[in-house]
Specification:
Helices cover 74% and strands 0% of the residues. α5 runs parallel beside α8.
Length: 200
């Protein structure tokens, strides 16, 4: 039987650690997750974890990056299904806030992430999010759908509002109720960008 290429073995080891770490962080939380437990679950050693991610915190960063990538793809699909560019933008922003109700996202990204890694504004994913939203807003401005305003400034304000809404939901005593309130208020804010509100 032929041996797998080294690059394939490295990728498999990394994927196993990511999956077991994600499972542990999502079920018992970062603080309670034992490195020995999730390396054993992956059939690997602590040495493999240190080699690929540095430490438990490095693994959390990688898990969050993986979840963030999945969220971005889901949001892209939500936007693509809308009937027009403005509705796609609104639906995408709304869907992001509503994702705060999902247990895995809530626990790993919104609760343990900031508690362990610090301010989410410093995370690499935030810069990518701002760039993407700035591009979307520029297209809406070019199409004369929204008012003339600096797209990066608005992107940062919208991103900040949606992040704080998600954090509010994740930390709320009644997350579903907080989500409904947040989505309703957020949509009122977004409507203020429209050039012709009577058409929407």
């Amino acid at each position: 039987m032929a041996h797998k290429p080294r690059s394939e073995m490295i990728a498999e080891t990394r994927a196993k650690l990511l999956a077991s770490g994600r499972q542990a962080f999502g079920t018992v939380g970062y603080a309670e997750a034992s490195m020995d437990d999730f390396t054993a679950a992956a059939g690997l050693t602590r040495g493999a974890l240190y080699h690929h991610f540095g430490d438990k915190k490095g693994l959390l960063e990688a898990v969050i990056a993986e979840i963030d990538g999945e969220m971005s793809e889901r949001l892209r699909q939500v936007s693509a299904m809308a009937g027009n560019p403005w509705q796609g933008f609104v639906d995408e922003c709304t869907a992001y806030i509503e994702m705060a109700l999902e247990p895995e996202i809530q626990r790993i990204v919104l609760l343990d992430g900031p508690a362990t890694l610090g301010d989410p504004w410093q995370w690499p994913s935030q810069n990518a999010c701002i760039r993407s939203m700035t591009d979307s807003l520029q297209k809406l401005i070019d199409a004369k759908l929204v008012v003339e305003v600096d797209p990066e400034a608005i992107a940062r304000l919208i991103s900040g509002a949606s992040l704080h809404a998600a954090l509010w939901i994740a930390n709320a005593d009644d997350p579903p109720s907080a989500s409904k309130k947040a989505v309703k208020a957020f949509n009122v804010l977004l409507e203020g960008l429209l050039k012709d509100r009577s058409r929407h």
